[in-house]
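## Example pair
The file below holds two records. Each record gives the amino-acid sequence first, followed by its structure token line.
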Amino acid sequence: MILKFKNIAATALLSFYIAGNAQTGENPIIKDEFLGDPAALVHKGKVYLYAGHDEAPNDFNFYKMNEWKVYSSSDLKTWDKHPVPLKASDFAWASGDAWASQVIEKNGKFYWYVTVSHKTIPGKSIGVAVSDSPIGPFKDALGKALITNDMTKKTTIDWDDIDPTVYIDDKGQGWLFWGNTVCYYAKLKNNMTELDSEIKTVDLPKFTEAPYIHKKNGWYYLSYATGFPEKIAYAMSKSLDGPWEYKGILNELAGNSNTNHQSIIEFKGKDYFIYHNGAIEPNGGSFRRSVAIEHLYYNKDGSIKPIIMTTKGIN
């Protein structure tokens, strides 16, 4: 009887293991919580995935986001969840709203650029947190915002200072891009917490938000959300100062989500496109999003083949 029970238990455990691993690599990659605005960092053989936690109840028709989450993976299929590394409340000058963000490493420090609402300056702002580890804990690096809405004058809206993305070029120069309706950019000082140039703009067709910079074979790529509901478009340049050549739509409308937000990485010799949709059933949607990953391929001229969104993912 005991032997029979052990055999049944072993069979059940094996079945559970197989069933669980059969789903790894499929989209959405994380199915037990809602996550939006994904950003990825490749570091020492792992990918670290950072995303805002969508906490809106089913009947709530706007974002409710108080914290960011971090996951890590060595194969993009099995993901380890880490303790909450950062909350909007960790910025004493912020009133809330843990919107889009990105983490980058420089000189052994990890800098997390985040979108939050400001307590005293109307509108969205960009803050910077720092840690000695990619999984945190992170702390406010400045004690104040890096970018506030009164620093940009190109629009009349107060949410144009969102969606920061940071790139460090081959000379070690840090660049910050961000924006909604207008794409802003500026150089960063070596400390990564101060601007080192005037704020400039990039002229892009139908720019909405979510700029992201990456480089491949001598080309810089600036991808971004366009229109609304949002698709992802992109442009190419030999310089981060431009000029940028518009190349068209990279990713069509994401399923069941008005917004789209992308991260593009190279990992273990392959290229990947990370984005969000609203695919978790039964309550996924524009304010309860989920993260997905697809393969990304380049043409011989450096342009990118259109992304094909799948439920299979990279499995």
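Second record, same layout:
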Amino acid sequence: APHEVLAYAEAAMAARLREAEAAAVAIRNGLASVVPAAVLPLLGWRELERMVCGRGDVDVDLLQRNTEYDEGVSPEDEHVRRFWRVLASFDSEQRQQFLRFVWARSRLPASAADFAQKFKLQAAVPEPGAAPGARDVVHEPDAFLPKAHTCFFSLNLPRYSSDEVMRDKLLYASFNCLTLDADYRLLDSELGGWPGVT
């Protein structure tokens, strides 16, 4: 009957319009845990993204203001000034990749107040137990890559001799060194177990 078709169409439309309601409520509650719920209707999507996810562009000045220098490293050191100069010369993609290398994230917090952990620049030190006569990072810094510690948001930075060497080493390390995600790569034996072993 025609009235049943209309009732069915209305019921189907109501179900379709409400099918994502539970998910939308969960998303709203999650957002409200980061941004006050009363503010949500006032924000555009870009503002909301920035508040929740941080800055999409890596603001080198913001990072520099939120950097600690470990013992033996000073913001006045030539290699530290060189580091900031070279990092500022990177394009957006290179800066994001550098951030992934040192922090396993591609975005900075939205503001200085949102930094729960500051970036730390540390001196590069020789590897313990190196063979006698082996190259070391103190005497031949240009032969070594920087070393990142993503859990601590820190970088062991060799005293590179030029901006070009600094740039090449930072870019190579940022784009080619294994990231934190590599910690969770499983071997075939771990995925499927050992043959014949239960």
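Notes on the second record: Residues 12 and 38 are 33 Å apart (CA to CA). The chain has two domains: 2-53, 60-184.
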